[in-house]
Amino acid sequence: MSQELPSHADFLRVVGDVFDAADSAGVRTPLTLITCSDELRSGGYSSFSLGFRGDDTVREQGIFELRHPGLGTLHLFLVPSRADAAGTEYTASFNSLEA
C-alpha cells in the first residue's frame, strides 16, 4: 500500500515545527523541520528537500517514522548531512513525476 505524502506546500507551512521521530531501532527523538527548499519543476518532474535538526547524536541513515499533529505519521528516508554544536541535521529528498 502506498503512502500519500504531504505536498511541498504542506511541509512549507510547518517549517519550525517539531516532529516525533523514531529510527529503525525504535529510538525516539524530536526533530525540528528547519528548511523546506524551493520546489523545482523540470521535464515533468518535481523535486524538493527537507532539512531536520535533532540532538547531537548522529543516527544512521534510514527510514524514520515521523509523527506530526497536523501531517500525521510519515515514513521518510533521512540522511545525516551535518553535525555541529547545534546538533545533527538530516535531509529528506523528494522526486516525483508530475500528474
UniProtKB/TrEMBL annotation:
InterPro entries: DUF6916. Residues 7-94 form the DUF6916 domain. It holds the Pfam family DUF6916. It comes from the Bacteria. It comes from Microterricola gilva. This is DUF6916 domain-containing protein.
